[in-house]
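Our preliminary data section would be incomplete without showing what the modeling component actually yields. Below, a chain of 173 amino acids is followed by its predicted structure, encoded as tokens that our downstream tools consume directly.
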Amino acid sequence: MESKARLFGHPIHQMLVVFPLGLLGASVAFDLLAIIALDYSLMAVVAYYLILAGLVAGLVAAPFGTIDWLAIPANTRAKSVGALHAMGNVVVLALFAASAWLRSVADPAAPPTLALVLSFGGAGLSLVTAWLGGELVDRLGVGVSDGAHLDAPSSLSHRDARPLASGGSRSIR
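Predicted structure:
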């Protein structure tokens, strides 16, 4: 199924998701640099502002993903994978938002350990939700093609995603 929210022929959600993923991922990289760097405060402040920007970017990308998800036919694998993707991303944003709040209450230059744990947990979960998004686009064809196979097996199954006319299954190598 083609995306319902498109710009110049391309799905808007797929264009926008790179920003929250990149910004929030970069915040974790700067947190790690802060932990090992001599100038802890500068890196920690950069991480804080990257989180804020990533949260805004995530809130901008989310409505376009919701528009596409609402257009997926019910009772398909794509609908359930999309729901997991969305719910996981809500948790990712909540973890990073809690981390940002803890940093702002304390001192962005010296974040409490819990703020770091929340960010690292959010980054780890974002890897899972990004994989689910890839499954939606690359395997199930959501947002890409009206000829999408919305019930294709998981890419982890090693079965062919193309539907068979006879209803059987193929093995891919």
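The first helix runs from residue 12 to 16. The chain has one domain: 6-157. Preliminary results of this kind motivate Aim 1 of the renewal.
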